[in-house]
Specification:
It is built from four helices and six strands, in the order ααβββαβββα. It is α+β, with helices and mostly antiparallel strands. It comes from Colwellia ponticola.
Length: about 150
C-alpha cells in the first residue's frame, strides 16, 4: 500500500470515528471540514455547500470567507451538484465559468454528497497549488464522503 493510500485509510478511520455517534448533519460537516483542513497538505479551503432550493448555500468550512450562494450548474461546485459527478480541476483558471471566491486558489476537488439518489451537498477542497489533486486524492475523498453519506442514511 502506498504512503498516500495509507494516509487516506487513516483519514477515513478518523472521519468515521468523528461522525459515528453524531446524527446532526451540520455538526458532522463542521468536524469533517476541520479534520480535512488540518490533515491535508497544500489546501487553503475545505468545506461544504448544501443544496437548498436549487442553489448551493455555504455550509460549514475552514478557510477564508467564501461565496455564500452558488447557482446550480455554475462554477466547479455548481457543476458538481448539477451533474452529480466529481470535479477534479488541475487549473481552475481554465475552467469555463469558474467562480473565484479566493483568487489564490489554483486547483480544486469537489465531491457530490448523494443521499437517496439525490445530491444534497458538495464537499469542496481548494488548493493554491496547480494540479494538487490526483486520482488517489479523488478516491480517498470519495471514500470519506461515502462514509458521511452512510451516516446520514442510518
Amino acid at each position: 500500500m502506498s504512503k498516500q493510500a495509507e494516509f487516506y485509510q487513516e483519514l477515513l478511520g478518523q472521519t468515521k470515528a468523528l461522525i459515528s455517534n453524531e446524527s446532526d448533519i451540520i455538526a458532522n460537516m463542521a468536524n469533517i471540514s476541520a479534520l480535512l483542513f488540518e490533515r491535508l497538505e497544500d489546501v487553503n479551503w475545505v468545506g461544504f455547500y448544501r443544496l437548498v432550493n436549487d442553489e448551493l448555500v455555504l455550509g460549514p468550512f475552514q478557510g477564508k470567507v467564501a461565496c455564500i450562494r452558488i447557482p446550480l450548474g455554475k462554477g466547479v461546485c455548481g457543476t458538481c451538484a448539477a451533474t452529480a459527478k466529481i470535479q477534479r480541476i488541475a487549473n481552475v483558471h481554465d475552467f469555463d465559468g469558474h467562480i473565484a471566491c479566493d483568487a489564490s486558489s489554483n486547483s480544486e476537488l469537489v465531491i457530490p454528497v448523494i443521499v437517496s439518489g439525490k445530491v444534497i451537498a458538495v464537499l469542496d477542497i481548494d488548493s493554491t497549488v496547480f494540479e494538487r489533486f490526483d486520482l488517489q486524492d479523488e478516491q480517498g475523498m470519495q471514500a470519506i464522503v461515502a462514509a458521511f453519506e452512510q451516516s446520514i442514511v442510518e
